[in-house]
Design a protein that fits this description.
Length: 221
């Protein structure tokens, strides 16, 4: 058992580098974390010496002596996580704790957003504004040189009457013409739901906003 755990801890530093996503490797005894190695983020309550949550999945892993794999919803730690946990069992068959990994569960569109958002926003003749949201707020945003929406910043809460919330509630893509009183120019907004590939739940939206000034000018001619 000790050889297994020592090998896990020794290789954890290397293994964190193999994940593109943020992750945390850990081991526990029967009651608390005794090893934690993180890459890119930290979780409240997941530190060496912190006690395991009674009734939580790690306690379940220990109690049932079996591997557990699942998703931790955003309400617990403020971000969605995937977890893998296996019991630590000694030569006599007694459970001594568990070991595993937490991985930040980020939608593929959100992962790729920093790479494609800026060139895509600049590709439209009048510019564009793009954003990715979770179920409550703006998570990523990208304006263009010609068009931006300054009131939508990272962390801005979604309005219940906004198209992102409408797409979430309707469980389908929404296209809406938005009056100039909201963003300073008449705008076409598109919001598309994003789904977890594992459980198919909606986890957020992708939004694209296009100014309509040029089209309206041509219509007036």
């Amino acid at each position: 058992m000790s050889q297994l755990i020592n090998a896990f801890r020794t290789h954890a530093e290397f293994l964190t580098k193999t994940y593109e996503m943020e992750c945390i490797y850990f081991t526990t005894d029967l009651d608390k974390y005794d090893f934690v190695l993180s890459k890119g983020f930290e979780l409240e309550g997941v530190q060496v010496g912190e006690r395991l949550v009674e009734g939580g999945f790690l306690k379940q892993c220990i109690k049932e002596k079996r591997e557990l794999i699942g998703t931790i919803e955003r309400a617990v730690y403020g971000q969605r996580l995937k977890f893998f946990a296996r019991p630590i069992i000694d030569d006599a068959g007694a459970v001594k704790g568990c070991y595993g990994v937490y991985v930040h569960k980020l939608h593929r569109v959100a992962q790729a957003f920093p790479d494609f958002a800026e060139p895509l926003a600049e590709a439209f003749p009048e510019g564009a504004f793009l954003m990715v949201t979770d179920l409550e707020k703006v998570a990523y945003r990208q304006g263009s040189k010609k068009f931006d929406i300054p009131i939508l910043q990272q962390g801005t809460m979604l309005k219940e009457d906004g198209i992102a919330k409408e797409a979430i509630h309707a469980n389908q893509g929404i296209v809406k013409e938005i009056d100039a009183s909201l963003y300073g120019v008449n705008t076409r907004g598109v919001s598309i739901p994003l789904y977890d590939p594992d459980d198919k739940q909606i986890v957020g939206t992708f939004g694209l906003y296009l100014p309509r000034a040029l089209q309206e000018t041509l219509q007036d001619l």
